[in-house]
Write a sequence for this structure.
C-alpha cells in the first residue's frame, strides 16, 4: 500500500513558504510489522499558498499528481525517483487558484482536475474592491498508455462554472465539496437549500446531448437547516447497489478556549416559530452534529434539468492546458559581463 503525505495547508517556514510531499511504501506482515519505506520526497519554495489540495495516486501505476500552488502541478514517478511540473493555465489574468482537486479514473486512463478560482479585478481604491468572484474549472485529461508516468496528459474536455460572488471565503470551512463518479463530478455548495451541480467529465455526442446536459441541477428544491450555510454539505448519488441518493451535512461547532463539560451530552430538539433547532445540550456553545438523509432523485429532486448559466470557455486562450513552465530570467546567473579595455592613442 502506498501512502502519500502532503499538508492540508502548505506550511510556512522561515524565510519562505514551502511545499513538501513524501511517499511511503507500507507492507503488511503476519510475522512482524515492517517499518514504512520512504520512496520519494519533494520540497519546493512557493510565493503563495494553496488550500486543501491533496495529492492523488494512480490506481496501479507509480504516478502521483499534486497541485503545489502558483498554478504548478507536480507529476512524480516515485519508483524511478523522477518528476516534472506543468503549469495549469488560469481562465483570466485576474484569477488565482484557491483549491485544486485531482482525481484518477478507476481504469487509470484519465486524470480529472477541478480548480476553484478566485477572481478580483484590480481596483484603484480599497473600498471599490468588494467581494471575490468564484469559478470552478473542471478538466479531463487522457494519460499516455505507454509513458503514463513520464509524458504529460492531453486535455480532452473542460467545463467552467461561475459560482457567484462571495464577500469572503473561509478556507477552514470551504463552502464547496466534490463527489466523483466514473462519468460525473457533483459539486455541492453550503446553503440553506440543496445546491448541487452534476457536471459531465466527458464530452457527449449530439444524440446524447438531447437528453443529457453538460451541467445539470435538480428541478425541485430541498430545504436544509439554516446552519448548513456554515457547514460542509455532501451529495452522494445513487449507485447500482443503492438506488437512493444521500445528503450529508457535517458538524458545525468550533469551540475555542479551555472548558469542561460537566453534564453528559445528549441530543435535543426545540421547536420555534421559525423552525426547529437541533443540537446537543450540555456543550459550552450550541453544537450541530452531522446529519443526513436519503432522497429519491426522481421524486424528491424532480430529476435533473439543464443549468442555463453555463460559462463559455474560449478555445483560443489555451485555458486548462498544462504548459511547460518557462525559466525566469535571472540577472545574476544569466548575464555575462565582459570588460573591454581600450587604450587611447596619443595625438
Amino acid at each position: 500500500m502506498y501512502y502519500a503525505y502532503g499538508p492540508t495547508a502548505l506550511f510556512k517556514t522561515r524565510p519562505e513558504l514551502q511545499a513538501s510531499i513524501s511517499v511511503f511504501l507500507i507492507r503488511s506482515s503476519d510475522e512482524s510489522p515492517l517499518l514504512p519505506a520512504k520512496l520519494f520526497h519533494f520540497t519546493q519554495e512557493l510565493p503563495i499558498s494553496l488550500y486543501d489540495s491533496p495529492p492523488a495516486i494512480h490506481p496501479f501505476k507509480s504516478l502521483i499528481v499534486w497541485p503545489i500552488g502558483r498554478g504548478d502541478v507536480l507529476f512524480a514517478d516515485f519508483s524511478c525517483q523522477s518528476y516534472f511540473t506543468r503549469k495549469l493555465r488560469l481562465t483570466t489574468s485576474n484569477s488565482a487558484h484557491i483549491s485544486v482537486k485531482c482525481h484518477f479514473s478507476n481504469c487509470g486512463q484519465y486524470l480529472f482536475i477541478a480548480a476553484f478560482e478566485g477572481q478580483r479585478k484590480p481596483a484603484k481604491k480599497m473600498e471599490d474592491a468588494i467581494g471575490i468572484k468564484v469559478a470552478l474549472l473542471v478538466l479531463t485529461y487522457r494519460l499516455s498508455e505507454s509513458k503514463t508516468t513520464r509524458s504529460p496528459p492531453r486535455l480532452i474536455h473542460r467545463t467552467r462554472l461561475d459560482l457567484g460572488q462571495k464577500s469572503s471565503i473561509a478556507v477552514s470551512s470551504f463552502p464547496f465539496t466534490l463527489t466523483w463518479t466514473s462519468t460525473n463530478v457533483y459539486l455541492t455548495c453550503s446553503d440553506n437549500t440543496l445546491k448541487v451541480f452534476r457536471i459531465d467529465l466527458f464530452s457527449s455526442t449530439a444524440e446524447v446531448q438531447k437528453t443529457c446536459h453538460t451541467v445539470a441541477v435538480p428541478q425541485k428544491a430541498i430545504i436544509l437547516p439554516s446552519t448548513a450555510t456554515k457547514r460542509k454539505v455532501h451529495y452522494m448519488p445513487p449507485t447500482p447497489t443503492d438506488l437512493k441518493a444521500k445528503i450529508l451535512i457535517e458538524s458545525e461547532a468550533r469551540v475555542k478556549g479551555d472548558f469542561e463539560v460537566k453534564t453528559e451530552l445528549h441530543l435535543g430538539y426545540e421547536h420555534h416559530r421559525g423552525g426547529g433547532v437541533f443540537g446537543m445540550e450540555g456543550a459550552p456553545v450550541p453544537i450541530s452534529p452531522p446529519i443526513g438523509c436519503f432522497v429519491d432523485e426522481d421524486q424528491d429532486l424532480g430529476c435533473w434539468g439543464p443549468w442555463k448559466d453555463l460559462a463559455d470557455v474560449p478555445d483560443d486562450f489555451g485555458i486548462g492546458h498544462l504548459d511547460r513552465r518557462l525559466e525566469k530570467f535571472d540577472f545574476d546567473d544569466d548575464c555575462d559581463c565582459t570588460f573591454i579595455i581600450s587604450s587611447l592613442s596619443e595625438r
Q: What stands out?
A: The chain has one domain: 2-254+285-323.
